[in-house]
Each structure stands twice: as C-alpha cells, then as structure tokens.
C-alpha cells in the first residue's frame, strides 16, 4: 500500500512539473516581449543616467591624468595641462572638438565657447602648457572648472542625477543646491505630480456617477452608454487634443456658449494655460477611471443597500457607510491607473498648455531629440520612475493597512 502511495505521489509530482512547464512555455513569448520592449530599455535608460564616457572618448589623456589629481583644492599640475593641450590638438584635427564642447557645455557656463576658444588660441608648442593655456583662456585657472572636467571624465558620474534634483557637486566633492535662478527641475517634478493629482481627482469626481449609472441601469440602456464611454479609445489622441483646441479657443464653442448663457461678458482664456491642460487630460483619461469603477460596482449586490435601509439607515447614510466602502477597490485601481498614466503625458500638455504648464515628459523628449543630451533625459526619467515607484509602494502599504483594518 505504501509503495503504491509513493508511486502515486511521484506520478502526481511529475504531472505537476509537466503542467508548470507547459504553462511557462505558453507565457514565454509574452515574457520575452516584455524583456525586450520594457525591461531592457528601462535598464539602458537607468544606465545612461550614471554612465558617461562621452568626454573620455575624445579626451582620453585628460580622463587618464585627471584621476591622479589628488588635491582638488589646488590647480592640477603641468602633466594634466599638457594632456589637455594634446587632446585639444588631436580632437581639433579629427573634428571631434564639438563633442567635448557639447559635453562640457552641460556642466560649465559657456563651456562650448571655452573649448573652441582655447583650441583656437593654443600655440603649437610651449615651455609651460599650464601657463600657455591659462593665458589663452584665464578660466582654466579656476579650480571649480577643473572639478567639472573631472566629473565629466566618467565613466561613472552623478552629474545628471544631481542636476535633475537641482543639485551639484563642488570641486571639493560636496553636494550643494544650484543657484535659485538655475533650479528648475524640482519645480517641474512637483508640477507634474500636481497636474496628475488634480486630473485624477477630476476623473474620480466625474467618473464615479457615470460608473454608478452604468452599473444600476438595465442592460439594454447601459450597453449603448458604455459604447459612448469606449468611443474615445477609437479616436486618435492627437485628434481629441486638437478638438479641444478648437472648442476652448476665445472664439470657440465653449466661450460662445457661456456668453450666450450670460455667464461671462467677454471671452475668457481657456487654452494654452493650466485650465486647458486639466480639461483635455481629464477627457482623455476619464474612461480609465470609469471602467475599473464599473467593474467593481457591477459586482455589488443591491441587497446590501436594501438591507441597510431596512435597518433604519437613510439612503445617504447607507450609501456612505455601505456602498462607498465596497467601491474602494475600484476607486483605488482607477485612481492609480489614471495618476500613473497622467505622469507620463506629453502631447496633450504640449499642445493645449503654456510654457509654465509643461510636464517632465516634455523635457525628457526635449533632451532626447532636440539637444541629444541622453544623460539628462535618462536622469529625469530615472527620477520620475523612482518617484512613481515610491508613491506606488506607499499606496500599496496604505491600501494594505486599510484592508487589514476593514477585515
């Protein structure tokens, strides 16, 4: 009997392993797709935010010699200035000077003009390269400038991540805040989260009654209305955004309707400002709030509300104490989905917002395509990703604690 039982258990384990292998093979294409299109690009983005070999590729002697610069409070010795002179001459010959100029221009004010000016004024030979270079461009006599060169020499750097947080590293290695007139990225990040939060709240305020109506109406009425909710998914995002530009402009339908109703005397500015961003983004993201709410509300039995009212609760009290807590999973799922989608929005704020309404995705695209500063674009993306993960972990912790209290 025991031998038969042992054999049966072994057979069951083999069958279970075979079932797991088949299940894994079924999801393997999707897993590979996610790795290739999601994990690898994000990993490469994170790598570019801390990996920097651009300057070292065109100024290899400087990158090698600057590692021996020990006393960062004093100017480097003659060997490093000689390495700079050799790299300047070589990069001018092979036409790679613009690469070094562009990289130093990220970290140094007028770095491009400094590099080209030094290369142009540099003599063919000198008894002291240190003296010759400083005479050609006196800024090379600044210790802070050499500190920036050291940080740009890579291969690992914290320059981009620090700049994305409005911080910088001094020549001595201390991390300090950048001057107030240069601090922009923290404000942009806060603006991104503020816009996303407001849009999420607007979607919740508008989507909750719509989802409740769809969940409580008879099927023959709810289905046509659900088609209207899904209709925006079948329309291009660019078309929807352009339509709001037409509607919200000063001579648009919204302003004319408000004037006709006597709400305003003259057209108000509803486009190319924060109002336009809120309206357009809320319209685009509203279905993502309605659908999770509808899915949860459809599963709530009407018997709960009838039981609450039969026990003496008023309709309002029954809704607040019974129905609303039951919709909490839908509210949480819809709010999280809308908020995370809103964080990465680019086209809608770029078209309907003003200069002070652009979100962090606009600047990531700007550094990626316009200035080709992939390090800065990757750093901003890494900061946004980290902040999103932190908020998600916080949400998950709070929702878990709330669920334990309810249980």
TrEMBL record:
<dbReference type="InterPro" id="IPR035906">
    <property type="entry name" value="MetI-like_sf"/>
</dbReference>
<dbReference type="GO" id="GO:0005886">
    <property type="term" value="C:plasma membrane"/>
</dbReference>
<dbReference type="Pfam" id="PF00528">
    <property type="entry name" value="BPD_transp_1"/>
</dbReference>
<comment type="similarity">
    <text>Belongs to the binding-protein-dependent transport system permease family. CysTW subfamily.</text>
</comment>
<feature type="transmembrane region" description="Helical">
    <location>
        <begin position="188"/>
        <end position="215"/>
    </location>
</feature>
<feature type="transmembrane region" description="Helical">
    <location>
        <begin position="374"/>
        <end position="395"/>
    </location>
</feature>
<keyword id="KW-1003">Cell membrane</keyword>
<feature type="transmembrane region" description="Helical">
    <location>
        <begin position="23"/>
        <end position="43"/>
    </location>
</feature>
<dbReference type="InterPro" id="IPR000515">
    <property type="entry name" value="MetI-like"/>
</dbReference>
<feature type="transmembrane region" description="Helical">
    <location>
        <begin position="275"/>
        <end position="297"/>
    </location>
</feature>
<keyword id="KW-0812">Transmembrane</keyword>
<protein>
    <submittedName>
        <fullName>Polyamine ABC transporter substrate-binding protein</fullName>
    </submittedName>
</protein>
<feature type="transmembrane region" description="Helical">
    <location>
        <begin position="318"/>
        <end position="347"/>
    </location>
</feature>
<keyword id="KW-0813">Transport</keyword>
<keyword id="KW-1133">Transmembrane helix</keyword>
<keyword id="KW-0472">Membrane</keyword>
<dbReference type="GO" id="GO:0055085">
    <property type="term" value="P:transmembrane transport"/>
</dbReference>
<feature type="transmembrane region" description="Helical">
    <location>
        <begin position="227"/>
        <end position="247"/>
    </location>
</feature>
<feature type="domain" description="ABC transmembrane type-1">
    <location>
        <begin position="189"/>
        <end position="395"/>
    </location>
</feature>
């Amino acid at each position: 009997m025991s031998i038969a039982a042992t054999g049966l258990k072994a057979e069951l384990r083999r069958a279970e392993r075979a079932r797991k292998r088949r299940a894994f093979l079924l999801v393997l294409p999707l897993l590979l797709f996610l790795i290739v299109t999601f994990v690898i690009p994000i990993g490469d983005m994170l790598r570019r935010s801390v990996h920097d070999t651009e300057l070292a590729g065109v100024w290899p002697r400087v990158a090698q010699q600057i590692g021996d610069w020990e006393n960062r409070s004093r100017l480097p010795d003659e060997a490093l200035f000689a390495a700079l002179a050799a790299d300047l001459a070589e990069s001018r010959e092979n036409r790679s000077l613009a690469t070094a100029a562009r990289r130093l221009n990220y970290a140094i004010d007028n770095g491009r003009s400094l590099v080209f000016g030094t290369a142009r004024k540099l003599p063919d030979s000198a008894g002291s390269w240190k003296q010759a270079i400083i005479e050609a461009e006196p800024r090379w006599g600044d210790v802070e400038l050499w500190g920036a060169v050291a940080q740009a020499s890579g291969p690992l750097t914290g320059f981009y991540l620090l700049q994305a947080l409005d911080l910088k590293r001094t020549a001595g290695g201390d991390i300090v805040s950048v001057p107030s007139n240069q601090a922009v990225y923290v404000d942009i990040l806060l603006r991104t989260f503020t816009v996303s939060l407001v849009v999420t709240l607007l979607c919740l305020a508008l989507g909750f009654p719509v989802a409740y109506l769809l969940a409580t109406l008879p099927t023959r009425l709810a289905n046509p209305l659900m088609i209207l909710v899904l209709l925006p998914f079948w329309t291009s995002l660019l078309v929807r955004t352009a339509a709001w530009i037409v509607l919200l402009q000063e001579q648009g339908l919204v302003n004319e309707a408000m004037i006709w109703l006597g709400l305003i005397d003259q057209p108000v500015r509803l486009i190319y400002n924060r109002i336009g961003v809120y309206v357009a983004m809320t319209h685009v993201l509203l279905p993502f709030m309605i659908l999770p709410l509808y899915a949860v509300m459809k599963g709530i039995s009407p018997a709960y509300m009838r039981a609450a009212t039969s026990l003496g609760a008023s309709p309002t009290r029954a809704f607040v104490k019974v129905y609303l807590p039951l919709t909490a999973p839908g509210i949480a799922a819809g709010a999280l989905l809308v908020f995370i989608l809103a964080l990465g929005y680019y086209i809608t704020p770029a078209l309907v917002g003003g200069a002070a309404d652009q979100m962090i995705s606009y600047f990531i695209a700007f550094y990626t395509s316009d200035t080709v500063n992939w390090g800065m674009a990757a750093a901003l993306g890494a900061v946004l990703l980290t902040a999103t993960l932190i908020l998600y972990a916080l949400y998950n912790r709070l929702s878990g604690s709330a669920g334990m209290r309810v249980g």
